[in-house]
Every structure is written in C-alpha cells, then in structure tokens.
Amino acid sequence: MKFLSLAAGLLSLAHLAIAAPVGDVDPEVAASKRILELQAQYQQNIFGAIDNRTTGCTAQNIQRRKEWSTLPKPDQAAFIAAIHCLNTLPAKTPPTHAPGARFLYDDFIVTHIDQTPFVHASGLFLPFHRHLVHLFATALRTQCAYQGPLPYWDWTLSYTDPRKAAVFDGSEHSLSGNGAFIPGRNATEIALPGGFTWSIPPATGGGCVAHGPFAQGRFEVRLGPVGYEPKGPQGGLGYNPRCLTRDLSPAYSRGTSPTAVTKLVEGCGDLACFVHEMDMPGGVPGGVHASGHWQVGLDALDVFASPSDPVFWLHHAQIDRMWTMWQGLGLKERTYQVTGTATAANDPPSDNVTLESVMDFGILGDARTIRQASSSVDGEYCYVYE
Ligand SMILES: *[C@@H]1O[C@H](CO)[C@@H](O)[C@H](O)[C@H]1NC(C)=O
Ligand SMILES: *[C@@H]1O[C@H](CO)[C@@H](O)[C@H](O)[C@H]1NC(C)=O
Ligand SMILES: *[C@@H]1O[C@H](CO)[C@@H](O)[C@H](O)[C@H]1NC(C)=O
Ligand SMILES: [Cu+2]
C-alpha cells in the first residue's frame, strides 16, 4: 500500500508538471478542461463498443445520466416528486428487522446500514454502490413513474463552496439548501470503517434544512444516526423521526476539486491505486468520496445511514461516474479489475475479493457478483454519463 501510494504520488506529480506549464494557468481551470476531454474520450470508447449492437445495450436505448444543473426543470421537479413518492409507499422491510422503516425509501437505508461493514473501504465498495444506485433509479421509475435521466452531482463545479451548487440552491428545483446556522456547535466525531474515528468541525449550517422540497415539515428522516452521537435506537434501525440536517462546508469541498478528479481518473493505472486515491489519498481519510459526504454534513456524515439525505444518490452517481470514466478510458483492461477484501478496512480480516464475490442487497433485490456489477453496458446496466 505504501509503495502504491508513493507510485500514485509520483504519477500525479508528473501529471501536474504537464498540466500546469510555466505561466499562470490555474491548475483547477486546466483540470476542469482536462475532465471534459477525459469525459469525451470515455464516451467515444463506450459508443465505439456498442455502436454496432442491435440487441442488449445499444447506442439507441442507452440511458444518459446528467448533471443536476443540466436536467430540464420538469425532470428536476419529477425527480424530487419521485423521492417524495418513495417516502409514501409502504416499506417492505419487516418491522421485526427495522421497526423504524416505514416507507420504501427506508428500505434503501436499511440495506445500506446492514451492509456498511462490508461495502465501505473494501473491494465491494464500487460495485455495491453502483448496483444500489441502479436499484434506486429502477425504483424511481417503476414505483414512482420517474421518466427522466438519473441526475448526478458534479461537485467539482462548486469545489470552492458547496453553497454555490445548483443542487443546494434551496429553490423548488434543488434538493434544498443548507441547514440553519447554529453557532457554537461542537465537532462531530464520526465512526469510520475499520474502527477509526474522525472529527468533523462545524461549518456554515448545522440545523434543520429550512428551504426547498426537503425542508423541515416537508421531509422526515427516520433511521439512524449510527455513525455518530447521539445514536438512534436499536442500532439505528429504530424509529427516530426528525428533520434533515446539513452543514455545508467549504473546507471539505476543496477535496472534490477538479485536480482531485484528474489525479484519480488520469493518475491511476490500476484499480488498487484508484480505490486508494478515492478514499485515502496520501494514506489519510478523505478523497473525493468522503469529501463529498463531509462537505454536505450531518446526516450525510453518517457512514451507515447517509442515504437519509437524498443528495446521497447524486453523490454516489458521481462516484460511479468517476469509476465508469476510469473504466471507459481503458475498457478492455479495466472493466473487470478487482482489488481489496470483503470487509471494511479488512476488519475482521477476509479473503481478497474475486469477480465471483457476492454482494447482498437485503429486501431490495437478489444478490449480485462483482462481475455482474462491473460493466455499465455489458450486463444488466445500460447507461452513460453525459
Ligand atoms: C462496426 O461496423 C463497422 C462497419 O461495418 C466496422 O467498420 C467497425 O469495425 C465495427 N465496429 C466494431 C466495434 O465492431
Ligand atoms: C461540547 O462538548 C463539551 C465537552 O464534551 C460539552 O460540555 C458541551 O456541552 C458541548 N456543547 C454543545 C453545544 O453540545
Ligand atoms: C490479496 O491481495 C494482495 C494485494 O494484491 C496480495 O498481496 C495478497 O497476497 C493477496 N492475498 C491472498 C491470500 O491471495
Ligand atoms: Cu455507502
């Protein structure tokens, strides 16, 4: 691991030297441009692979996932309405397992809580979350008649301050904005996979989300917290109704800068580097995955129950976009790579994963192997990021 991170560091230094020539080119501006080029190359490779197909996933039927701000306004409204809809249909989770699960939306949180010890900081992280996002997208469509593209949140666009993100502008066409500012709060000590804790200092909010579709009174969080105090009853599976809270943090949004993305997507030649760079760049917790959660704050900080905040789905679509782009820049060699073990931070120790390693989705659906979740166009998935 040490050797890998050193190698990754050297690679990324080499990259910076090329991307920031003598002069005053802002490396973040250069990296933003580079991401567009990488995105175009990835798309070209994907369409090159499926162009001649007449069955399965074809250039005609492929679903296009879009950045929130480019989603047409009626689709934004329909997406928000579909999330509210999932919060009115009855849960399938038996009350004996999770007495706090009342609605279909909660089923997703329960599976995420139950699987957290296996699917974070492990070889199952990327494939598990890809399939979870797919199941969520499928539920929006089949249970709640959402017809539009699945949105993602490109946090590089607002890396200087998440309060500038379209997804958080607080309007009826956003996922609501910041939590109300509460002065004098303490840091939140969060439990990370593998028995680590991490201290998240207070930022610009801290209270209930006050405006928009998920404001207090219009949206309820019921499960958790599991990953910080005060914890919810019954290991976070009990009934703990409360408002959605956020604490948007410009300190942590720096972790999702354009250069963080080019380092990850362009700087890594194998999946071991990619996963390490995504979660522990330089051996320190952080990276674009954690920084996406930490810049939102509070409910989103809970490694177990973070799907409570609807932005979870857009963040994880963006994480999946990173993996999909990386795979798409080397489809043949990269699509079916695996790395890591099947437990968080390998605690307790477990075997290295293989393509046949199985992931459990609880009440949401049948188990899947890593192989089944590896390609965005060869198996049951058929989507491209625009
Ligand atoms: C698709 O078909 C064209 C025309 O027949 C051919 O030139 C090209 O090599 C094919 N591409 C793939 C990926 O099979
Ligand atoms: C902050 O933490 C201290 C020490 O644990 C505690 O005494 C204090 O009440 C806390 N303040 C708030 C606002 O929770
Ligand atoms: C698991 O993978 C690591 C990293 O590739 C390797 O060093 C180790 O030998 C593997 N363990 C087993 C039991 O195969
Ligand atoms: Cu997760």
TrEMBL record:
One of its GO terms (molecular function) is metal ion binding. It holds the Pfam family Tyrosinase. Residues 309-320 form the Tyrosinase copper-binding domain. The keyword Lyase does not apply. It comes from the Eukaryota. Keywords: Copper, Metal-binding, Signal. PANTHER family: TYROSINASE FAMILY MEMBER, TYROSINASE-LIKE PROTEIN TYR-1-RELATED. This is Tyrosinase copper-binding domain-containing protein. The lineage of its organism: Eukaryota, Fungi, Dikarya, Ascomycota, Pezizomycotina.
